[in-house]
Amino acid sequence: FEADDGGMRSNGSWAWGTPTYPDTLEAQSGVNVWATNLDGDYESNAADWLLLPCNVNLAALDNPVVGSVGWFDIELDWDFAYQVVDHDGDGVFDIMAEWTGSSEGWHWGYGIFSEEHAASENAGVGMLLISDATVTAAGLYLDDIFISSGPAMEVSTEAMADTVMPGESSGHPFVIENTGGLPFSYDVMASSVGDG
User: Fold this and answer.
1) Please, which residues have CB within 8 angstroms of residue 111's CB and are 6 or more apart in sequence?
2) Is the link from the previous residue into 173 a cis peptide, with omega within 30 of 0?
3) If you average pLDDT over every residue of the chain, what do you get?
4) How many CB atoms lie within 10 A of CB 95?
5) Nearest C-alpha neighbor of 99 from the set 78, 117, 125
6) DSSP string, 31-53
7) Which residue in 12, 133, 140, 141 sits closest to 78, CA to CA?
8) What is the Cα gyration radius of the chain?
9) In this predicted model, what pLDDT tens digit does every residue of 64-121 receive, in sequence order?
10) pTM
């Protein structure tokens, strides 16, 4: 978002530029962000949208995800920011993720599209801030928004069953290959079955 606003569409208090509030907040990269308000708290009774500049053909991507780095301070359990998608062009957006409270710093976040959403050739994707009539806060700040192919995992193994006596160990080699566009993490767990 350095050269321009990325063509994002917005209403309400969403604004693009250099944040000046809170006074210690700086963009995650460069100097410009999209925010619910660059120089103050978001408004009461808000229903403010920020939408990607055009609809997206999610079906052309493998395991599509939407991601960004975000910072938020939103009235806990009363006001909410939502990541939303309209997968069939009917104007009804489904919630993919929600935030309330404080992030206490910039954090990367990813939204994984459901199978139904991922099949869309014309998906609208965006953010929504909803607030009540009383307390407000600094709001939601976004930087480095993207949609891409997400992580995918292929595991190739041989059968991993073995009989091991107490005090013995057994090892089984396997390969995990990330065939998607983003990193992923995994845990390998072993289980044992006793004889009663």
Assistant:
1) 65, 66, 67, 83, 85, 96, 97
2) no
3) 83
4) 12
5) 78
6) S-EEES-SSSPPPTT-EEEEE-S
7) 133
8) 21
9) 888 889 999 999 999 999 999 999 889 899 998 899 999 999 988 877 788 889 999 9
10) 0.75
